[in-house]
Amino acid sequence: MSGPSAGVGAGAPAALLAALAAALAVAGAWELLTAIEGSRPGAALARALEPVARAGREGRAATAPERRRIALITAGTLAGGGWLLGGPLLGLVAGLTGPMVAATGLRARRRAYGRAVAAGAAGAARAVADALAAGHAVRGALAVAGDGLPGAAGVELRRAAAAVAVGAPTEAALEALRRRARVPAWDALVAGILLQRDAGGDLVGLLRDHAEALEAAARAEQEARSATAQARATARIVLALPAGAAVLAELASPGFLAGLLARPASATLMALALMLQLAAIVAVRRLGRMVS
Predict the structure, then answer these.
(1) Is 174 exposed, middle or buried (0-12, 13-18, 19+ CB in 10 A)?
(2) 61: region left, alpha or beta (phi > 0 left; psi from -120 to 50 alpha)
């Protein structure tokens, strides 16, 4: 009797202490949330990540301090997620990839903005033509077209108009616009405007013809993508079949892949198959880029 009674008596204070510790932990967590809310961390986080949004909205590159802040936030987030999912080792590995992930994300946002600028060339040409037809000069037409045009193309026109408004020559503003766009469609648009300033001619008609040609090219490209979408999807599925078969074989018979790699002949054949698979992936990606 004395043994069990002593165990129960000793366990009661431990249970009370555990309950008290849990209550204090909840109170501390509540105070921490209150302090965090008072310091507005959401606003600070939004300011730190603003360069990511700006890269996609305006195409502006992040400065070196901004890139460091984004890399630290990304590394911390990935490290915390990896720690929760797989422990300290996975958290460390995931955190080390933070700078690379952050840089890749920024580049992807800027590339998306560049594609949006290229896609908006036809709308920009038509908007500038309409502004010129309404009686504006080229300098005023840039501002009017930029104000009425949404998206990345409108941002670029407004940027050129702002440069003109603060005293930059029209040629310099248009040349800067052409360099930022870096696509033939905008090269032709800027060249047409500058050529008309020197040689004269029907700039409104030229810009509208340019817009119609760009729209026709975009329709043809979309039709080509639609016609080849099924073929490209099939190619991707076929490329994924060997990896899927290997996973299923390993699940059905654990150690199957290790057994293949243990034999020189089968290991050589697997390496050759992997090389051919990588070559096929590269070929499909290049064909996809040619179509798109």
Answers:
(1) buried
(2) beta
